[in-house]
Amino acid sequence: MSEKCCMSAAAIAWCIPSPRFKDEAVHVATVERVLKRKRTFGHVRDNLHAPRARLMSLEHWLIVAEVVKKKPFLYLCEIAAAVDERCGKLYAMNIISKELRRHQYSRKEMRRQARQRNNYKRYLYHKEVAEYMEHPSQLCFADEVGQDGRGSQRRRGWGPKGEDIVITEYLNRGVHISVLALYGYEGFLAFDWKEGGYDGGAFLSAVELTICPHLQRYVKGHPKPNSIFIIDNCPAHKKYEKELRELVEGRRGAKLLFLAPYSPIDNPIEMAFNCFKACWRRHGMWLTALPMHDRIYFCITNCYIDPKAAAVHTYAACGYS
User: Fold this and answer.
1) Does the reported pTM lie above 0.90?
2) pLDDT at residue 1 above 50?
3) Residue 112: left if φ>0, alpha if ψ -120 to 50, beta else—which one?
4) Region of residue 85 (left: phi > 0; alpha: psi -120 to 50; beta: else)
5) 119-317 adopts what CATH topology?
6) pLDDT for 217-234, tens place per residue?
7) Residue 211 near residue 122 (C-beta atoms within 8 A)
8) CA spacing 20 to 30 A to 106: which of 84, 209, 221, 260?
9) How does strand 139-147 pair with strand 228-231?
10) Looking at residue 236, what is its pLDDT?
11) Phi–psi pair at 319, nearest 5 degrees
């Protein structure tokens, strides 16, 4: 290309065929961009790409590392806010996450499985469920979960790979409460709570007052929601088994089934309680200002964005489909 060109960009574009579209010329903007590069650099070769800038400066990363070391339980948005408070720059959560993983940080959590679990008894349980169940909406599950002053403490935090995360704090359990909830194909249906734990009599009373109003009569060939009531083998559940069966099957006409021993994997409410506790931990800093019943109600109703869709997926994950 000559140093001086008397032709306009449109005229030049008309003379150059497009490499992408047959019987068309290149775009005028392309010619203008090439002419501008020629005037600026003296040639039209592609410039070497500049090295990619680091996601975060070393100074700011040291601040992130210090924040994570002191409070490894912080969420990404809270780490970004802490860095913004220290250095005046607000990073996006994805940049914080990339930097943490680039420096070999990860979030850790252990999983435990009971050695006492018996696969044959699980097979017998699923065989019994298959005998009665015609649609997953017939099944509803009840169980208890305990909460105390540690319920708002976050369990996971950021730390270097291969190293334990240790934080020093005063240990305070506070008041222990037990939450008894009923979980169905629509999500959480009802709950009851008390200080301390449920014994056989308290459980039977809670079933009568809180759970039974939601149970429907079981009719073969006409599946009704919440017509099969399932609980685990907790001693409090079996202490008054005869009275419980009379209450559920005699008065309400529903079916009462017991899970296989040590098989929370078959109980959808266990997964739902995980979300319940996660909601309590995330909002625990301000939930303490509410009465206990309101705290439980908030977490029960806000632990899922779409309770119906979540319950359907949870049932399917537990094998009820």
Assistant:
1) no
2) no
3) beta
4) alpha
5) Nucleotidyltransferase; domain 5 (3.30.420)
6) 999 999 999 999 999 999
7) no
8) 84
9) parallel
10) 93
11) 95, 10
- Give CA–CA dist 28/126, Å, rounded: 70
- The dihedrals phi and psi of 142, each to the nearest 5 degrees, come to -130, 145
* Interval 62-99: pLDDT, tens: 999 999 988 888 999 999 999 999 999 899 999 999 99
CA torsion, points 204, 191, 287, 187, in degrees to nearest 10? 150
For residue 133, give the amino acid letter.
M
**What are the structure tokens assigned to 202, written together?**
């308290």
The pLDDT tens digits for 137-149 are 999 999 999 887 6
* Residue with token string 């802490």: 82
Residue 193 pLDDT greater than 70, yes or no: yes
User: Tokens representing 78?
Assistant: 């809270």
What SS3 string covers the chain? Answer: CCCCCCCCHHHHHHHCECCCCCCCECCHHHHHHHHHHHHHHCCCCCCCCCCCCCCCCHHHHHHHHHHHHHCCCCCHHHHHHHHHHHHCCCCCHHHHHHHHHHCCEEECCCCCCCCCCCHHHHHHHHHHHHHHCCCHHHEEEEEEEEECHHHHCCCCCEEECCCCCCCCCCCCCCCCEEEEEEEECCEEEEEEEEECCCCHHHHHHHHHHHHHHHCCCCCCCCCCCCCEEEECCCHHHHCCHHHHHHHHHHHCCCEEEECCCCCHHHCHHHHHHHHHHHHHHHHHHHHCCCCHHHHHHHHHHHCCCCHHHHHHHHHHHCCCC
